[in-house]
Each structure stands twice: as C-alpha cells, then as structure tokens.
Amino acid sequence: MLDIVVAKLLYLLKNVIPVLVIAIVIANILSEFGVIRRISFIFKPLIRFANLSEESALAVVTYLASGSAAMAMLAGFREQRVISERETVIAAFVSSFFSFVNHLFVYFIPVVIPLLGLTAGMLYITARLFVSMCVTATAVIAGHFLLSGEVRARVNNKTEANERTPEEKIRAGLKQAWNVLKKILPRLVVVYVITALLNAYGFFEPLKEIHVGGFPGEASAIIAVGLADTTSAFALAGSMLAEGMLTPVEAVSALLLTSIVTMSVVLVRHSLPGRIAYFGVKLGFKIAVLSALLNVTYTIVALALLLYLT
Question: 149, 277 in Cβ contact below 8 A?
C-alpha cells in the first residue's frame, strides 16, 4: 500500500502540482495588473447590439474582473431606477460569456487543465465556452428586440487610477494565489491518493456494472464527488484519466453530466442566496432560476454534441 501512495505522490509532484502552482500564481498576478479588464474593448459591439445602457454595459464588462463587483454594480443601478427590471435580467445573462472569460484565466487554465491534462482540459473548456456563448447569445438577441424602445441613461465612466506599485500588485497576486492553493492542494493530494488505493484494491470494479445514461460506471463516482465539491470532481476525473480508467471524452462527459445533476444543489447552496442578496427576493429568485434553466439546457446540448461528434 505504501508504494502505491508514494508512486501517486511522486506523480503529483512531477506532473500536476508544479504546473498548477505556476499557473495559479501567474493568473492571479496578471489579474492584479488588470490584464483581464484591458481586453474589454473587444466586446463593445456585442453590448451595443443588445441595446444595453451604458450603466448595464459597465456592469457587464466588470464581470471580466470581478463577478461580485459586477453584480453589486448592476443591483445598484437597478435600485436607483436607472435601469429597468427587464434590462437587469438581460444584462445578468449577457454577462455569462464575460464571466467565462474571467474564469478562464483564474480557474479553467490554472486549475482545470493541470488536473485533467491538456486534451481533456481543453475539451471541457470548449464545452463550457459553448454553454456561456449560448446563454449570452440568447440574452443579446432578447435585448436586441425587448430593449430597443427603452430610454438610455448616461453614465460618466471614469476608471480610478490604480496607485499601487508593481511590487504591491505582485504581493497581492501571490496572496490570492496562496489562498487558492491552500484550498486546492490538500484536496488534490487526498483525492489522488484515495483513488489510486481504491483502484489498486478493486473498489471501482463493481461500478463498471453501473451505467448512467450509457456512461462508464466510473462516471457515477465523479458525479457523487461533484455533489460535494466541484474541484474534487476534477481531481477525481484527472486521477481516473491518469490511471487509464476513462478516456478524455468519457471524463468530460461525466463532468458535464455532473454539472447537470448538481445544478439543483448549486442553485440552493450558492446561486439563489447570492442573487437574492444582491437583487432582492423577487428579482434575485427570477435571475437565479432562469440562469439554472439556461445553463442546464445548454449543458445538455453541449453534452449531446460531444457524444454525437465523438
């Protein structure tokens, strides 16, 4: 048993942890330097087509840097009656792609790819990109037709100068990276070691007889872990890939299925409380439920396309 644990720890130290640490540190430092915010000009034509006001546009683009700040900004404009409830809902969903871009740099690239490997990681990111683009496209089209007659307010968008020195930004980035790593690394080691031991002692053999919608039995373990913690599900899928128990397509399919199955848990545990906190009970409930429905719908489409095309 000891040799299995040592072998898995050596594998992690050599192939996964160095890439994970470097990627997370770089991502957080770049975020502190405002690199993500500086690419916002690319999306202005999209926002104009959606007929969003300058206020909503400012909030949507802010999702590139911070989802919490963007929601607070959007909620503030709604409270001031600067934007309508309809525009608030549409802006919240137009932001789906912008939120994806943020997560791409702070989570998908530095966390998902090191855990799943390049092939499975890129496959999963492509699927999530598809989902976010579909949600945003739906909202943009809705805004184009539903917001065309609304009065546009004006806002003086001035970016406050960031007076921090480069050294302070680097320190802040390193601090954020440490906060992320101290949560991920212990779970990563535990999940990889336990998976290796369970696989060595034949624990997953009975699962091969259980098939969820035609997926390999091992997918049920990923779904079960995903109900408790998303990152642990990625770690388990990556471990199974490393053990040769799943193909990249099977692993990504299982993770997409996990996101569908766990959507109700995510809704109750995270989305609903968060949206209600920012937008109030009525509007917050509407945004959270519609978001869950859209994400589940397009994730099902992404999963179906993945299985059909491969």
Answer: no
Q: Where are the domains of the chain?
A: 2-150+167-309
pLDDT in tens, 89-141: 999 999 999 999 989 988 999 989 999 999 999 999 999 999 999 999 999 99
Q: Residue 56's closest CA among 137, 151, 183?
A: 151
Between the alpha carbon of residue 206 and those of residues 221, 222, 245, the distances in Å are 11, 15, 13
Three-class secondary structure of residue 13 per DSSP: helix
**Which DSSP string do the residues of 125-145 spell out, in sequence order?**
HHHHHHHHHHHHHHHHHHHHH
Rounded to whole angstroms, the Cα distance separating 190 from 232 reads: 9
Give the single-character DSSP code of 83.
S
* pLDDT tens digits, 78-97: 887 888 999 999 999 999 99
Q: Is 50 left (phi over 0), alpha (psi -120 to 50) or beta?
A: alpha
Burial grade of 218 (CB within 10 A; 0-12, 13-18, 19 or more): buried
Among 112, 124, 108, 127, CA closest to 16: 112
CA distance 179 to 31: 15
